[in-house]
Structure formats: structure tokens, C-alpha cells
Design goal:
It contains five helices and seven strands; from the N terminus they run H-E-H-E-H-E-E-H-E-H-E-E. The chain is an alpha/beta fold. The structure holds S-adenosylmethionine.
Length: about 180
């Protein structure tokens, strides 16, 4: 059966391609559902997660289990290299606004592109990058275009890029990109 939505699709993609995760990046922590999925699915994993809103960090600190394996950072994902001194198995990014929060605080094209480039650089060979691009909120258009322009031209010798979307759903459902970093030939 096909997946019912893009989040299930993303989770299945990760589980299908990664049997173990040591360190993962959650570039958009929000309510921590993505971080929580990694921490629960991979018992040995650690997650380094970013958000610019204190509200998100506070909520996660109160509500998530496995805090001992989760490091949260109150800073933009575009600065991720300041917090990282090793390669990662997985990076996740889920664009848009904080669910249940201020809908005017959204991820933005320029910083999103910067973060994607740095996260791809930080991936191990064989590492995965998952990207959920929401398209329906005000301000999304420029970001969607910037992301598409970036991932479309990633060298196929270095990365495999898959794009999946629910083509017949109403209201512009999110687009999923799954990217694998390849062995240099
Ligand atoms: C769609 S939500 C993420 C959902 C989240 N992954 C979850 O499981 O609940 C997007 C988040 O990105 C955050 N954000 C916006 N700009 C950011 C930036 N430059 N760096 C890090 N996080 C940012 C927002 O504050 C918001 O919480």
C-alpha cells in the first residue's frame, strides 16, 4: 500500500535505507516529532537539533523522552557547522512554521539553502538527507523555488536525489526529497 502522507513517506524512507544511526541532525526541531522518531527508532542514536524559537525548545524539553540523547540548540540551522565536529548519518529538514505556533515565523530561502549545503557537506558517504517542503503557506514560493534549484543540480556522481509528492491531493501537499550521499568514484 502507498503511504498516506508525506511524513509517513519520510519515515519509511529513513527506515528502509538506514539500519543504524549514530548521529542525526534535525535542522527544524519544532515540536520534536522528527527528533523523537529518530531517538525511538534507533536506540543508540543521538540527535543534534536546531530551532530559532525558544517556544519550540521549551516544549521539547518538557515533552520529549530520551533527552539524554538529544542536544537542542537555539540558533539558525545555517550556523550548524559551529556546533558540529564530526560527520553525520542523517539530516532532516521540515520546512515551514511551528505547528500550533506563530505562522509568520517561517523558514526562509536564503538560510534554508545555506543549511542544506552545510548539511550535505556534513553527511557521511551513504548518509541520508530528508527534506519536506511545505508549499501552501504565505511566503513559501520563494523557498520552494530555491530548494528545487539547489537539489536539481546536485552532481549525480555525488548524490542520488529522489522527489516524491502526492500528485492528486488538494491544497498543495508537501514535496518530499530524499538524498543519498554517494561514494566518490
Ligand atoms: C515545520 S516546523 C518543524 C516541525 C518539526 N520538525 C516537528 O517535528 O514538529 C519548522 C520549524 O523551523 C523553525 N525555523 C525557522 N527558521 C529556522 C532556522 N533558520 N533555523 C532553525 N529552525 C528554523 C521554525 O521555528 C519551526 O519550528
Amino acid at each position: 500500500m502507498l503511504e498516506e502522507n508525506a511524513i509517513v513517506l519520510m519515515r519509511n524512507f529513513i527506515q528502509r535505507h538506514k539500519k543504524e544511526v549514530d548521529l542525526a541532525l534535525d535542522l527544524t526541531l519544532g515540536r520534536g516529532k522528527d527528533s523523537n522518531f529518530i531517538l525511538e527508532t534507533y536506540p543508540g542514536s543521538r540527535v543534534l537539533a536546531f530551532d530559532i524559537q525558544e517556544e519550540a525548545l521549551d516544549w521539547v524539553k518538557e515533552n520529549l523522552k530520551n533527552q539524554d540523547r538529544l542536544q537542542v540548540v537555539l540558533d539558525g540551522h545555517q550556523n550548524l557547522d559551529s556546533y558540529l565536529d564530526q560527520e553525520v548519518d542523517l539530516a532532516m529538514m521540515n520546512l515551514g512554521y511551528l505547528p500550533g505556533g506563530d505562522k509568520t515565523i517561517i523558514t526562509k530561502a536564503a538560510t534554508t539553502v545555506m543549511a542544506i549545503e552545510k548539511a550535505l557537506e556534513a553527511l557521511k558517504v551513504g548518509g541520508l538527507f530528508t527534506l519536506l517542503v511545505y508549499r501552501s503557506h504565505p511566503g513559501a514560493g520563494e523557498e520552494v523555488a530555491a530548494v528545487e534549484d539547489l537539489v536539481r543540480v546536485l552532481d549525480q556522481r555525488d548524490y542520488r536525489v529522489q522527489r516524491i509528492e502526492f500528485y492528486n491531493q488538494k491544497n498543495q501537499p508537501p514535496v518530499f526529497f530524499g538524498i543519498e550521499k554517494r561514494m566518490k568514484k
